[in-house]
Write a structure and sequence with these properties.
By secondary structure, the protein is of the alpha/beta class. It has 13 helices and 20 strands. The longest helix is centred in the first third of the chain and has 25 residues, at about 65-85. It binds adenosine-5'-diphosphate (ADP), aspartic acid and magnesium ion (MG).
Length: about 425
Protein backbone atom coordinates (compact mmCIF):
# COMPACT_ATOMS: atom_id res chain seq x y z
CA UNK A 1 0.00 0.00 0.00
CA UNK A 2 1.34 3.41 -0.95
CA UNK A 3 0.72 6.81 0.61
CA UNK A 4 -0.05 9.27 -2.16
CA UNK A 5 -0.36 13.03 -1.78
CA UNK A 6 -2.38 14.54 -4.64
CA UNK A 7 -2.69 18.28 -5.23
CA UNK A 8 -5.41 19.68 -7.48
CA UNK A 9 -4.95 23.21 -8.82
CA UNK A 10 -7.70 25.79 -9.27
CA UNK A 11 -8.42 24.96 -12.90
CA UNK A 12 -9.02 21.30 -11.94
CA UNK A 13 -11.77 22.27 -9.47
CA UNK A 14 -13.26 25.32 -11.20
CA UNK A 15 -16.93 24.30 -10.85
CA UNK A 16 -19.22 21.66 -9.30
CA UNK A 17 -18.82 19.36 -12.31
CA UNK A 18 -14.99 19.50 -12.07
CA UNK A 19 -15.09 18.87 -8.33
CA UNK A 20 -17.16 15.73 -8.92
CA UNK A 21 -14.76 14.62 -11.66
CA UNK A 22 -11.74 15.06 -9.38
CA UNK A 23 -13.58 13.28 -6.56
CA UNK A 24 -13.96 10.22 -8.81
CA UNK A 25 -10.23 10.18 -9.45
CA UNK A 26 -9.48 10.42 -5.73
CA UNK A 27 -12.01 7.70 -4.87
CA UNK A 28 -10.46 5.43 -7.51
CA UNK A 29 -6.96 5.98 -6.06
CA UNK A 30 -8.29 5.10 -2.61
CA UNK A 31 -10.17 2.04 -3.86
CA UNK A 32 -7.02 0.83 -5.59
CA UNK A 33 -5.61 0.31 -2.09
CA UNK A 34 -3.67 3.53 -1.49
CA UNK A 35 -3.74 5.91 1.44
CA UNK A 36 -4.64 9.30 0.01
CA UNK A 37 -4.06 12.85 1.22
CA UNK A 38 -5.39 15.59 -1.04
CA UNK A 39 -4.36 19.24 -1.17
CA UNK A 40 -6.73 21.54 -3.00
CA UNK A 41 -6.50 25.10 -4.40
CA UNK A 42 -9.30 27.64 -4.56
CA UNK A 43 -11.82 27.13 -7.38
CA UNK A 44 -10.79 28.61 -10.75
CA UNK A 45 -9.62 32.20 -10.46
CA UNK A 46 -11.11 32.71 -6.98
CA UNK A 47 -7.86 34.01 -5.46
CA UNK A 48 -7.49 36.67 -8.17
CA UNK A 49 -11.14 37.63 -7.81
CA UNK A 50 -10.78 38.02 -4.04
CA UNK A 51 -7.68 40.18 -4.59
CA UNK A 52 -9.62 42.35 -7.06
CA UNK A 53 -12.43 42.66 -4.55
CA UNK A 54 -10.08 43.80 -1.79
CA UNK A 55 -8.58 46.29 -4.26
CA UNK A 56 -12.03 47.81 -4.73
CA UNK A 57 -12.21 48.44 -0.97
CA UNK A 58 -8.74 49.89 -0.48
CA UNK A 59 -5.56 50.26 -2.57
CA UNK A 60 -3.32 48.82 0.16
CA UNK A 61 -5.28 46.19 2.13
CA UNK A 62 -3.76 45.20 5.50
CA UNK A 63 -1.80 41.97 4.86
CA UNK A 64 -3.30 40.15 7.82
CA UNK A 65 -6.84 40.73 6.59
CA UNK A 66 -5.85 39.87 3.03
CA UNK A 67 -4.59 36.49 4.24
CA UNK A 68 -7.86 35.74 6.03
CA UNK A 69 -9.76 36.74 2.92
CA UNK A 70 -7.64 34.70 0.49
CA UNK A 71 -7.63 31.52 2.60
CA UNK A 72 -11.42 31.46 2.38
CA UNK A 73 -11.07 30.36 -1.26
CA UNK A 74 -9.44 27.08 -0.31
CA UNK A 75 -12.03 26.51 2.45
CA UNK A 76 -14.76 26.50 -0.16
CA UNK A 77 -13.06 23.96 -2.41
CA UNK A 78 -11.89 21.65 0.40
CA UNK A 79 -15.35 21.24 1.90
CA UNK A 80 -17.09 20.76 -1.46
CA UNK A 81 -14.50 18.18 -2.46
CA UNK A 82 -14.94 16.29 0.83
CA UNK A 83 -18.71 16.24 0.18
CA UNK A 84 -18.22 14.97 -3.36
CA UNK A 85 -15.92 12.14 -2.24
CA UNK A 86 -18.26 11.16 0.59
CA UNK A 87 -21.07 10.99 -1.98
CA UNK A 88 -19.11 8.32 -3.83
CA UNK A 89 -19.08 6.12 -0.73
CA UNK A 90 -15.49 6.91 0.32
CA UNK A 91 -15.08 8.59 3.71
CA UNK A 92 -13.35 11.99 3.52
CA UNK A 93 -12.74 14.89 5.86
CA UNK A 94 -11.42 18.39 5.14
CA UNK A 95 -8.94 20.42 7.18
CA UNK A 96 -7.66 23.99 7.10
CA UNK A 97 -3.91 24.58 7.01
CA UNK A 98 -3.99 25.29 10.72
CA UNK A 99 -5.82 22.04 11.50
CA UNK A 100 -3.38 20.15 9.28
CA UNK A 101 -0.42 21.43 11.31
CA UNK A 102 1.21 23.75 8.78
CA UNK A 103 3.13 26.12 11.04
CA UNK A 104 4.65 29.25 9.45
CA UNK A 105 6.47 32.45 10.32
CA UNK A 106 4.37 35.62 10.59
CA UNK A 107 5.20 37.21 7.21
CA UNK A 108 1.70 37.65 5.81
CA UNK A 109 1.38 37.15 2.06
CA UNK A 110 4.54 35.09 1.72
CA UNK A 111 4.92 33.13 4.94
CA UNK A 112 7.52 30.39 5.15
CA UNK A 113 6.83 27.00 6.68
CA UNK A 114 8.74 26.51 9.92
CA UNK A 115 7.25 23.16 10.93
CA UNK A 116 4.80 20.56 9.67
CA UNK A 117 2.99 18.55 12.37
CA UNK A 118 0.27 16.65 10.53
CA UNK A 119 -1.10 14.57 13.46
CA UNK A 120 -4.72 14.95 12.45
CA UNK A 121 -3.95 14.08 8.86
CA UNK A 122 -2.11 10.94 9.90
CA UNK A 123 -4.97 9.91 12.22
CA UNK A 124 -7.50 10.46 9.44
CA UNK A 125 -5.53 8.34 7.01
CA UNK A 126 -5.04 5.62 9.62
CA UNK A 127 -8.81 5.43 10.01
CA UNK A 128 -9.05 4.66 6.29
CA UNK A 129 -10.40 8.09 5.38
CA UNK A 130 -9.21 10.52 2.71
CA UNK A 131 -7.81 13.73 4.24
CA UNK A 132 -8.43 16.90 2.22
CA UNK A 133 -6.21 19.84 3.14
CA UNK A 134 -6.71 23.47 2.13
CA UNK A 135 -3.63 24.53 0.17
CA UNK A 136 -1.61 27.76 0.40
CA UNK A 137 -2.26 28.44 4.09
CA UNK A 138 -0.83 27.96 7.54
CA UNK A 139 -0.81 29.48 10.98
CA UNK A 140 1.82 31.61 12.71
CA UNK A 141 3.09 31.26 16.29
CA UNK A 142 0.71 34.09 17.24
CA UNK A 143 -2.19 32.04 15.89
CA UNK A 144 -2.76 34.26 12.88
CA UNK A 145 -3.75 32.77 9.54
CA UNK A 146 -1.02 33.15 6.92
CA UNK A 147 -0.62 32.43 3.21
CA UNK A 148 2.43 30.96 1.51
CA UNK A 149 2.53 33.20 -1.58
CA UNK A 150 0.89 32.68 -4.98
CA UNK A 151 0.96 29.09 -6.14
CA UNK A 152 1.51 28.06 -2.52
CA UNK A 153 -0.75 25.00 -2.67
CA UNK A 154 2.11 23.22 -4.44
CA UNK A 155 4.26 23.94 -1.38
CA UNK A 156 1.56 22.64 0.98
CA UNK A 157 1.43 19.39 -0.99
CA UNK A 158 5.18 18.83 -1.05
CA UNK A 159 5.53 19.75 2.63
CA UNK A 160 2.81 17.29 3.61
CA UNK A 161 4.34 14.60 1.41
CA UNK A 162 7.66 15.16 3.22
CA UNK A 163 6.03 15.32 6.68
CA UNK A 164 4.03 12.14 6.08
CA UNK A 165 6.86 10.36 4.26
CA UNK A 166 4.61 9.81 1.25
CA UNK A 167 5.71 7.69 -1.68
CA UNK A 168 4.94 10.37 -4.23
CA UNK A 169 3.53 13.87 -4.48
CA UNK A 170 1.29 14.22 -7.53
CA UNK A 171 0.60 17.76 -8.76
CA UNK A 172 -2.54 17.72 -10.93
CA UNK A 173 -2.96 20.67 -13.25
CA UNK A 174 -4.44 21.71 -16.62
CA UNK A 175 -1.55 20.58 -18.86
CA UNK A 176 0.10 17.14 -19.21
CA UNK A 177 3.25 18.01 -17.28
CA UNK A 178 6.22 20.33 -17.45
CA UNK A 179 6.84 21.35 -21.06
CA UNK A 180 9.84 22.87 -22.82
CA UNK A 181 7.89 26.17 -22.73
CA UNK A 182 4.45 27.34 -21.62
CA UNK A 183 2.08 25.50 -24.01
CA UNK A 184 -0.23 28.54 -23.96
CA UNK A 185 2.49 30.49 -25.80
CA UNK A 186 4.31 27.73 -27.64
CA UNK A 187 1.81 25.12 -28.88
CA UNK A 188 4.70 23.06 -30.26
CA UNK A 189 6.24 22.73 -26.76
CA UNK A 190 7.30 19.22 -25.84
CA UNK A 191 6.49 17.42 -22.61
CA UNK A 192 9.59 16.71 -20.52
CA UNK A 193 9.55 13.18 -19.07
CA UNK A 194 12.10 13.80 -16.32
CA UNK A 195 13.69 16.89 -14.92
CA UNK A 196 16.05 17.36 -11.96
CA UNK A 197 15.29 19.53 -8.94
CA UNK A 198 18.07 21.92 -10.04
CA UNK A 199 16.64 22.44 -13.52
CA UNK A 200 13.08 22.72 -12.18
CA UNK A 201 14.29 25.29 -9.62
CA UNK A 202 15.71 27.45 -12.41
CA UNK A 203 12.57 27.03 -14.54
CA UNK A 204 10.29 27.89 -11.61
CA UNK A 205 12.46 30.82 -10.51
CA UNK A 206 12.37 32.09 -14.10
CA UNK A 207 8.58 32.14 -14.24
CA UNK A 208 7.38 28.64 -15.26
CA UNK A 209 4.46 28.71 -12.85
CA UNK A 210 3.44 25.09 -13.44
CA UNK A 211 5.25 24.36 -10.16
CA UNK A 212 5.83 26.94 -7.41
CA UNK A 213 9.48 27.71 -6.66
CA UNK A 214 9.23 27.04 -2.95
CA UNK A 215 7.62 23.67 -3.58
CA UNK A 216 10.63 22.67 -5.67
CA UNK A 217 13.04 23.94 -2.99
CA UNK A 218 11.18 21.90 -0.41
CA UNK A 219 11.09 18.79 -2.62
CA UNK A 220 14.82 19.00 -3.16
CA UNK A 221 15.59 19.48 0.52
CA UNK A 222 13.48 16.48 1.59
CA UNK A 223 13.99 14.44 -1.58
CA UNK A 224 10.28 14.19 -2.37
CA UNK A 225 9.58 12.75 -5.85
CA UNK A 226 7.08 15.06 -7.58
CA UNK A 227 4.92 13.93 -10.49
CA UNK A 228 3.37 16.85 -12.42
CA UNK A 229 0.43 15.68 -14.54
CA UNK A 230 -3.00 16.56 -15.88
CA UNK A 231 -6.20 15.95 -13.93
CA UNK A 232 -7.99 15.87 -17.30
CA UNK A 233 -6.14 12.87 -18.77
CA UNK A 234 -4.46 9.70 -17.58
CA UNK A 235 -1.22 10.46 -19.42
CA UNK A 236 1.99 10.05 -17.44
CA UNK A 237 3.38 13.50 -16.71
CA UNK A 238 6.78 14.84 -15.68
CA UNK A 239 8.79 13.34 -12.85
CA UNK A 240 10.87 15.84 -10.86
CA UNK A 241 13.60 14.10 -8.85
CA UNK A 242 17.29 14.31 -8.02
CA UNK A 243 18.58 12.78 -11.25
CA UNK A 244 17.58 12.35 -14.87
CA UNK A 245 17.81 8.58 -14.53
CA UNK A 246 14.92 7.91 -12.15
CA UNK A 247 12.14 6.08 -13.90
CA UNK A 248 8.48 6.57 -12.99
CA UNK A 249 8.05 2.83 -13.24
CA UNK A 250 11.37 1.27 -12.28
CA UNK A 251 10.38 -1.97 -14.02
CA UNK A 252 9.69 -0.33 -17.34
CA UNK A 253 12.05 -1.60 -20.05
CA UNK A 254 13.02 1.94 -21.05
CA UNK A 255 14.44 2.69 -17.60
CA UNK A 256 17.76 0.98 -18.13
CA UNK A 257 18.32 2.77 -21.40
CA UNK A 258 17.33 6.13 -19.96
CA UNK A 259 19.80 5.73 -17.12
CA UNK A 260 22.58 5.81 -19.65
CA UNK A 261 21.41 9.06 -21.15
CA UNK A 262 23.22 12.29 -20.46
CA UNK A 263 21.39 15.35 -19.24
CA UNK A 264 19.87 17.24 -22.18
CA UNK A 265 21.61 20.51 -23.06
CA UNK A 266 18.42 22.53 -22.75
CA UNK A 267 15.45 21.72 -20.50
CA UNK A 268 13.27 24.57 -21.59
CA UNK A 269 12.43 28.24 -22.04
CA UNK A 270 10.61 30.06 -19.22
CA UNK A 271 9.11 33.52 -19.35
CA UNK A 272 8.03 36.06 -16.78
CA UNK A 273 5.83 39.14 -17.11
CA UNK A 274 5.65 39.90 -13.41
CA UNK A 275 8.71 42.15 -13.22
CA UNK A 276 9.36 45.83 -13.79
CA UNK A 277 12.58 47.83 -14.20
CA UNK A 278 13.79 50.78 -12.16
CA UNK A 279 16.71 52.87 -13.42
CA UNK A 280 18.52 55.14 -11.00
CA UNK A 281 19.85 57.84 -13.33
CA UNK A 282 22.99 59.89 -12.71
CA UNK A 283 24.52 58.18 -9.69
CA UNK A 284 28.01 59.22 -8.50
CA UNK A 285 30.42 56.46 -9.60
CA UNK A 286 32.31 55.96 -6.34
CA UNK A 287 32.69 53.17 -3.76
CA UNK A 288 29.66 52.61 -1.56
CA UNK A 289 26.98 54.02 -3.88
CA UNK A 290 25.58 50.67 -5.00
CA UNK A 291 25.73 49.36 -1.44
CA UNK A 292 23.65 52.29 -0.18
CA UNK A 293 21.11 52.11 -3.01
CA UNK A 294 20.51 48.40 -2.50
CA UNK A 295 20.30 48.81 1.28
CA UNK A 296 17.43 51.19 0.66
CA UNK A 297 15.86 48.79 -1.86
CA UNK A 298 16.18 45.87 0.57
CA UNK A 299 14.71 48.00 3.35
CA UNK A 300 11.63 48.50 1.15
CA UNK A 301 11.18 44.71 1.09
CA UNK A 302 11.88 44.30 -2.64
CA UNK A 303 13.08 41.02 -4.08
CA UNK A 304 15.40 42.22 -6.82
CA UNK A 305 16.40 40.06 -9.75
CA UNK A 306 18.76 41.46 -12.41
CA UNK A 307 21.14 44.41 -11.90
CA UNK A 308 23.01 46.32 -14.58
CA UNK A 309 25.41 49.22 -14.00
CA UNK A 310 26.60 51.22 -16.97
CA UNK A 311 30.15 52.47 -17.42
CA UNK A 312 30.25 56.03 -16.11
CA UNK A 313 30.54 58.89 -18.54
CA UNK A 314 34.15 60.10 -18.24
CA UNK A 315 33.35 63.82 -18.16
CA UNK A 316 30.66 63.61 -15.47
CA UNK A 317 31.77 60.66 -13.31
CA UNK A 318 28.09 59.68 -13.20
CA UNK A 319 26.54 56.32 -14.02
CA UNK A 320 23.09 54.67 -14.26
CA UNK A 321 22.06 51.58 -12.33
CA UNK A 322 19.06 49.52 -13.49
CA UNK A 323 17.46 46.60 -11.69
CA UNK A 324 14.37 44.45 -12.07
CA UNK A 325 11.89 43.60 -9.33
CA UNK A 326 8.32 42.26 -9.02
CA UNK A 327 5.61 44.79 -10.02
CA UNK A 328 4.14 44.37 -6.56
CA UNK A 329 7.34 45.57 -4.86
CA UNK A 330 7.70 48.67 -7.07
CA UNK A 331 5.60 51.31 -5.28
CA UNK A 332 7.35 50.87 -1.92
CA UNK A 333 10.79 50.77 -3.59
CA UNK A 334 10.24 53.92 -5.66
CA UNK A 335 8.96 55.74 -2.57
CA UNK A 336 11.95 54.66 -0.48
CA UNK A 337 14.48 55.73 -3.13
CA UNK A 338 12.75 59.05 -3.78
CA UNK A 339 12.72 59.84 -0.07
CA UNK A 340 16.53 59.55 0.01
CA UNK A 341 17.34 61.25 -3.32
CA UNK A 342 19.54 63.92 -1.70
CA UNK A 343 21.56 61.45 0.33
CA UNK A 344 21.99 58.99 -2.57
CA UNK A 345 22.81 61.85 -4.95
CA UNK A 346 21.09 60.53 -8.09
CA UNK A 347 19.49 62.77 -10.71
CA UNK A 348 16.20 60.94 -11.31
CA UNK A 349 14.36 57.61 -11.31
CA UNK A 350 12.86 55.89 -14.34
CA UNK A 351 10.17 53.26 -13.98
CA UNK A 352 9.35 50.79 -16.75
CA UNK A 353 6.66 48.14 -16.26
CA UNK A 354 6.51 47.09 -19.92
CA UNK A 355 9.32 44.55 -19.78
CA UNK A 356 9.34 40.78 -20.21
CA UNK A 357 11.99 38.26 -19.29
CA UNK A 358 12.81 34.97 -20.94
CA UNK A 359 15.21 32.36 -19.61
CA UNK A 360 16.83 29.42 -21.30
CA UNK A 361 17.52 26.67 -18.76
CA UNK A 362 19.56 23.49 -19.00
CA UNK A 363 22.13 21.62 -16.96
CA UNK A 364 24.02 20.65 -20.11
CA UNK A 365 24.79 24.34 -20.82
CA UNK A 366 27.78 24.27 -18.48
CA UNK A 367 29.73 22.07 -20.83
CA UNK A 368 28.44 23.36 -24.18
CA UNK A 369 29.96 26.58 -25.48
CA UNK A 370 28.00 28.72 -27.92
CA UNK A 371 24.63 28.62 -26.20
CA UNK A 372 24.55 32.40 -25.62
CA UNK A 373 25.66 33.16 -29.17
CA UNK A 374 22.85 30.99 -30.54
CA UNK A 375 20.30 32.64 -28.27
CA UNK A 376 21.36 36.17 -29.20
CA UNK A 377 21.49 35.19 -32.88
CA UNK A 378 17.92 33.88 -32.76
CA UNK A 379 16.67 37.12 -31.18
CA UNK A 380 18.54 39.17 -33.81
CA UNK A 381 16.95 37.13 -36.61
CA UNK A 382 13.53 37.75 -35.04
CA UNK A 383 14.30 41.49 -34.82
CA UNK A 384 14.03 41.55 -31.02
CA UNK A 385 16.14 43.94 -28.96
CA UNK A 386 17.84 42.72 -25.78
CA UNK A 387 17.73 45.17 -22.87
CA UNK A 388 19.39 43.26 -20.05
CA UNK A 389 21.23 39.94 -19.72
CA UNK A 390 22.05 37.75 -16.74
CA UNK A 391 23.44 34.24 -16.49
CA UNK A 392 23.97 31.41 -14.04
CA UNK A 393 25.73 28.11 -14.64
CA UNK A 394 22.60 26.55 -16.06
CA UNK A 395 20.53 29.58 -17.19
CA UNK A 396 20.67 32.59 -19.50
CA UNK A 397 18.02 35.28 -19.03
CA UNK A 398 17.29 38.30 -21.19
CA UNK A 399 14.90 41.20 -20.77
CA UNK A 400 12.92 42.38 -23.82
CA UNK A 401 9.95 44.66 -24.44
CA UNK A 402 6.89 42.94 -23.00
CA UNK A 403 5.02 42.94 -26.31
CA UNK A 404 7.95 41.13 -27.98
CA UNK A 405 8.15 38.43 -25.32
CA UNK A 406 5.90 35.77 -26.86
CA UNK A 407 7.68 36.01 -30.22
CA UNK A 408 11.03 35.87 -28.45
CA UNK A 409 10.07 32.71 -26.54
CA UNK A 410 8.90 31.02 -29.76
CA UNK A 411 12.04 32.06 -31.64
CA UNK A 412 14.33 30.66 -28.94
CA UNK A 413 12.29 27.47 -28.63
CA UNK A 414 12.70 26.84 -32.36
CA UNK A 415 16.36 27.89 -32.44
CA UNK A 416 17.23 25.23 -29.86
CA UNK A 417 15.30 22.51 -31.72
CA UNK A 418 12.81 22.11 -28.92
CA UNK A 419 9.68 22.06 -31.14
CA UNK A 420 7.74 18.82 -30.95
CA UNK A 421 7.30 16.75 -34.08
CA UNK A 422 4.11 15.09 -32.84
CA UNK A 423 1.39 17.69 -32.70
CA UNK A 424 0.36 20.46 -30.40
CA UNK A 425 0.45 20.42 -26.61
CA UNK A 426 -3.00 20.24 -25.02
CA UNK A 427 -4.16 22.95 -22.62
CA UNK A 428 -7.23 21.37 -21.01
CA UNK A 429 -8.61 24.28 -18.99
CA UNK A 430 -7.74 27.39 -17.04
CA UNK A 431 -7.62 31.03 -17.99
CA UNK A 432 -3.83 31.30 -17.80
CA UNK A 433 -4.33 34.09 -15.25
P1 LIG B 1 -2.90 25.19 -11.25
O1 LIG B 1 -4.16 25.97 -11.24
O2 LIG B 1 -3.14 23.75 -11.54
O3 LIG B 1 -2.01 25.42 -10.06
P2 LIG B 1 -1.16 26.93 -12.77
O4 LIG B 1 -1.90 27.90 -13.62
O5 LIG B 1 -0.55 27.42 -11.51
O6 LIG B 1 -2.13 25.69 -12.52
O7 LIG B 1 0.01 26.23 -13.61
C1 LIG B 1 -0.29 25.58 -14.82
C2 LIG B 1 0.02 26.50 -15.98
O8 LIG B 1 1.41 26.79 -16.00
C3 LIG B 1 -0.25 25.92 -17.34
O9 LIG B 1 -1.60 26.05 -17.72
C4 LIG B 1 0.70 26.72 -18.24
O10 LIG B 1 0.03 27.77 -18.91
C5 LIG B 1 1.70 27.33 -17.27
N1 LIG B 1 3.10 27.01 -17.61
C6 LIG B 1 4.11 27.94 -17.67
N2 LIG B 1 5.25 27.36 -18.02
C7 LIG B 1 4.99 26.04 -18.20
C8 LIG B 1 5.79 24.92 -18.58
N3 LIG B 1 7.10 25.03 -18.84
N4 LIG B 1 5.21 23.70 -18.67
C9 LIG B 1 3.88 23.56 -18.40
N5 LIG B 1 3.07 24.59 -18.06
C10 LIG B 1 3.61 25.82 -17.95
N1 LIG C 1 -5.09 29.77 -4.66
C1 LIG C 1 -3.72 30.20 -4.51
C2 LIG C 1 -3.27 30.97 -5.73
O1 LIG C 1 -4.05 31.14 -6.66
C3 LIG C 1 -2.78 29.07 -4.23
C4 LIG C 1 -2.63 28.06 -5.34
O2 LIG C 1 -3.51 27.93 -6.19
O3 LIG C 1 -1.63 27.37 -5.34
O4 LIG C 1 -2.16 31.43 -5.78
MG1 LIG D 1 -0.29 26.65 -9.52
Amino acid sequence: MALVVQKYGGSSVSDAHSIKRVAKRIAATKRAGNDVVVVVSAMGDTTDELLDLAGQITPLPPQRELDILLTSGERISMSLLAMAITNLGVRAKSFTGQQAGLMTDAVHGRARLVDVVPHRIRETVEKGQVAIVAGFQGVSSTNDVTTLGRGGSDTTAVALAAGLDADVCEIYTDVDGVFTADPRIVPSARKIDRVTYEEMLELAASGAKVLALRAVEYARRYDVPVHVRSSFSSTTGTLVTGTHGDAIDPNAPAAEEENQMEAPIISGVAHDRSEAKITVVGVPDKPGTAARIFEVVAGAGANIDMIVQNVSAAHTGLTDISFTLPHADSPSTLAALNALQDELGFASLQYDDQIGKLSLVGAGMKSHPGVSARLFGALRDAGINIEMISTSEIRISVVTREDALDDAVRAIHTAFDLDSADGEAVVYAGSGR
